[in-house]
Design goal:
The chain is α+β, with helices and mostly antiparallel strands. The protein is about 20% helix and about 35% strand. It has one domain.
Length: about 180
């Protein structure tokens, strides 16, 4: 699976070549901090070699990933339908991935591992807040437990310094007196 995403760019013939693979949760949990419980993602990678040193990658990812809901921790299935295009240029001696549309790789690279690009393409499709659409879809027992631990009012750290009768901090009163003078 991951080997299919390692492109032998030096020996790739001119023209367009398609690479297809299926990704599961083991692919996403190799080195990422996000917990992907299940994954069923089909990837189609079209690689076009335009010249000796220029390539175009067209990545299409379709399927679903299952991650924990931020609210109730139950499984949350999210659709993945992402496309990403990237130009690759072989030049120089250093990798430069500072541009979203152009990846510059060293001239002496014989292989280009596209797996991190595919992984990022799918993971960036996952929203920052990952919750069921409504609380009705969440685990009711977990929501009840969260409600039982909810704090209604946070005590003020300066309670011992506050004036009990007026509810005003005496330091503010002293500043007001200075302002009036």
């Amino acid at each position: 699976m991951v080997d299919a995403l390692k492109l032998k760019i030096k020996t790739l013939p001119f023209g367009t070549h398609a690479v297809e693979c299926h990704l599961d949760e083991s692919f996403f949990n190799l080195d990422e901090q996000i917990e992907v419980r299940r994954a069923d993602v089909d990837v189609t990678l079209n690689v076009t070699r335009k010249s000796e040193t220029t390539y175009r990658l067209e990545i299409a990812c379709h399927g679903t990933v299952t991650i924990p809901c931020d609210r109730c921790l139950d499984d949350l299935d999210l659709p993945v339908d992402e496309n990403y295009c990237l130009n690759v240029e072989q030049m120089g001696t250093e990798l430069d991935d500072s541009n979203d549309e152009l990846l510059i790789v060293p001239q002496d690279w014989r292989e280009l591992d596209v797996a991190p690009i595919v992984r990022d393409t799918v993971l960036l499709a996952i929203p920052m807040t990952r919750c069921h659409e409504s609380e009705d879809d969440c685990n009711a027992d977990m929501l009840d437990m969260l409600d039982s631990h909810r704090v209604e009012a946070v005590p003020d750290d300066d309670d011992d310094n506050n004036n009990e009768t007026t509810g005003t901090d005496p330091r503010w009163e002293a500043l007001k007196k200075l302002k009036e003078q």
